[in-house]
Amino acid sequence: xxxxxxxxxxxxxxxxxxxxxxxxxxxxxxxxxxxxxxxxxxxxxxxxxxxxxxxxxxxxxxxxxxxxxxxxxxxxxxxxxxxxxxxxxxxxxxx
Length: 95
Hints:
Elements: H1 2-13, H2 20-37, H3 43-56, H4 69-79
Helix pairs in contact: 2-3
C-alpha cells in the first residue's frame, strides 16, 4: 500500500520522466548559481539565467506548452514586441 502511494506521488512530480539532459542542465544551473552566490561573479546576470535554466528543465510542467508560463511570455511579450528585443549594437554605433 505505501509503495503504491509513494509511486503515485513521485509520478506526479515528474521524477520518473527525468532524462540525463534534464540532470545535465540542472548541474549547469547549479554551477552558475554557485559562481554567482559564493564567488560573487556577476550575480545580477548569472542568478536569473541559472534560475531560468533550472525552471525550464522541470519535466511535465508544461511551461513551454501552449498556455504555459514561458509560452505566454514569449507569445505576448516577444512575438507581439510588447517586450522589445535587446539592442545588441553599441550606443552611438551606426552601421
